[in-house]
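Sequence and fold
=================
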Amino acid sequence: MKLKSLIIIILVGVTLGISCKKTWLDVNTSPNDLPTSVSNYVFSGAQNTTAYNYWGDNGTGQRSNELGAYWSGQWTQSSSYILVTNIFGYLFTNGDFNYWDDMYNNLQDYQYVINNADKDGQKFLIGPAQVMKAMIYQNLVDLYGNIPYGDALKGLSSIAPKFDDQKAVYEDLIKLLDSAITNVKANTWTPNVVGSDVLFKGDKTKWVRFANSLKMRILIRQSRIPGRDAYIIGEINRIVAEGSGFIHNATLPADRDAAVNPGFQAAAGKQNPFYDRWGYDAAGTTRSLGRFPRPSKFLFDMLIANNDTLRLKRLAYAIGGENANAPGTSKIAEVVSNYKAVPFGAGSGYTGPSTSYLGPSMLVKGQYKPVVLMTAAESLFLLAEAKQRFPAVTLPGTAQSYYEDGVRESFRILGVPDPINSANAVLTGGKADADWSASTDKLRAIAIQKWLALANFNGLEAWAEYRRTGYPVTPQSLAVSDPNKRPVRLYYPNTELGSNEANVKAQGTIDVFNTRLFWDVD
């Protein structure tokens, strides 16, 4: 693992905005010779880097959420570009898709805060830093399997960290989140420092709810593993007994999602990375790369089959894209026939201008939306599955109530007009996998609606859930002849092989089409 760490030194107040570009506020240095910095500055920058790592453009290719959106079947590419074979032909090596280095560098930042916050008189940062650390470590497991964990983040005292078993890491992340909750509750934020928290502004209740929601994500990911029921039920009941609830329990709709906003604005290096990559530059000029990602035909077909066209019109713009003179609307009439998606992996016949662009749920000219780490909808679908799989859990609602609220929250975060009534029309429309009563396979319905709700927000999570549940059954890439050949994980990157060869090789031969993660049982 690399020894350099992305320690971000905040040179101006958070109220002036924090850069997304790695060339402005952060420096690469050894974690054993760290610059002097106050923990809250490092924490702000680390949160910003987390958001950037999921969606930003560092010049090395697709970020983890983008790749996940492709491999979960939600997105594909237009034929205005030569087909990217490492994504759509699955012709990739350990030189592709290296999210490892940036994630571990980001973990070094949070570990710096954990190690130094008390010394800096900012002990209130330890719990939140532990929560962020747990989230990133789970993402690493979901991409790579066994990873350096207990022996990691120790600098020169462990320059070749051993790998831990992925299941053991998952179990320890629950303990880490328990510790985080204890620390969050025990320490009150200094009022003049709450602005350093660009996720929850120092709100302790929100941090505990986020920790609980992440615990649910970790537990439900293991729900199909034989022999884990008692452990999962016991841990869920402990979450309920803790009493703070989950992120979707916030009263105000705008507070129900875990979303990072360090002050995104129309300035170079300070824009939302999603907006900057596929929307507009700081001067408002359309990014040419916006012609690349396209909603998949499968995604559109599923929505249309359920008469769910209002969400479709928020996930995508009609042919031709956004009307710059009326931001948030399409250039042409927003009728279903004017929306055209692309078959997954199609190499020709679907140019950017002739197909639908990514839509107003994420891209509206002049609007700098936050980067969402977890939606209220995801949180609710986790509870729906928990209640459906494990009736003995002490969650107070029913599987149906959590499911239906999850669909409503999906409509809300997408910006569908009159989201409650619009969602209710789908929920009572008599269609399987939408209407609870019409769905004979409730777990399948939960999985499919969760997949739909993750579109445009969390591709990495969508891909993990697709691997875990097998739903929805997406079509194979047109660039791949074998109908059963799908990536189930990534290779360890060549950077880690170069610096930690013995421990990487100790993991055995990795077959990215057959070496499944421990929670991917079939």
In short: The two ends are 31 Å apart (CA to CA). The longest strand covers residues 5-8.
